[in-house]
């Protein structure tokens, strides 16, 4: 009986956490898409630009790893960004088979503007949460990520 009540308690906490997490994602997406609506870019295109800003002249594989997606899932976004002259292709000087990507001046300006928008709105979303509480929360999220990464490895082995 005690074990069942503990499981129910965790289930209720999980359900609440899951609902709040979905709300945060939905609200953030709504805020970010409103920002992107003024730019004529898709969400994926913006994420490719931000990944390229964070990485040092990456390959498509580097960008996809950073975004945690498959390389083929960003091909359309990359081609669109190149045609919009926000991203440019470069050949790797050490291996001519490898295509690298760099931001154009306009792409860099947009990426910095986007990163600033994210930073400002992230700060607003944190409100008056003190640094200590934020550190505790961050550590808890990091622990969840580590646990999930272990599950991914275990599930990959099971295949």
UniProtKB/TrEMBL annotation:
Chain ranges of the HTH marR-type domain: 34-134
Places the protein is found: Cytoplasm
Matching PROSITE patterns: HTH_MARR_1
SUPFAM superfamilies cross-referenced by the UniProt entry: Winged helix' DNA-binding domain
Any Gene Ontology CC annotation: cytoplasm
A single MF term (Gene Ontology): DNA-binding transcription factor activity
UniProt keywords, alphabetically: DNA-binding, Transcription, Transcription regulation, Virulence
Chief location category: cytoplasm
Family affiliation: Belongs to the SarZ family.
Name of the molecule in the record: HTH-type transcriptional regulator MgrA
Provenance organism: Francisella philomiragia
């Amino acid at each position: 009986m005690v074990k069942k009540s503990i499981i129910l308690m965790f289930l209720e906490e999980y359900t609440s956490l899951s609902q709040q997490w979905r709300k945060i994602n939905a609200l953030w997406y709504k805020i970010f898409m409103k920002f992107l609506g003024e730019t004529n870019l898709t969400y994926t295109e913006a994420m490719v630009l931000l990944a390229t800003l964070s990485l040092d002249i990456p390959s498509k594989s580097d960008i996809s790893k950073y975004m945690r997606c498959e390389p083929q899932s960003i091909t359309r976004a990359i081609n669109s960004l190149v045609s919009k002259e926000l991203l440019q292709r470069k050949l790797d000087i050490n291996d001519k088979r490898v295509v690298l990507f760099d931001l154009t001046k306009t792409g860099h300006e947009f990426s910095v503007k986007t990163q600033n928008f994210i930073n400002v709105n992230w700060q607003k979303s944190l409100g008056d949460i003190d640094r200590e509480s934020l550190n505790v929360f961050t550590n808890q999220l990091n622990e969840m990520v580590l646990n999930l990464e272990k599950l991914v490895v275990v599930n990959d082995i099971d295949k």
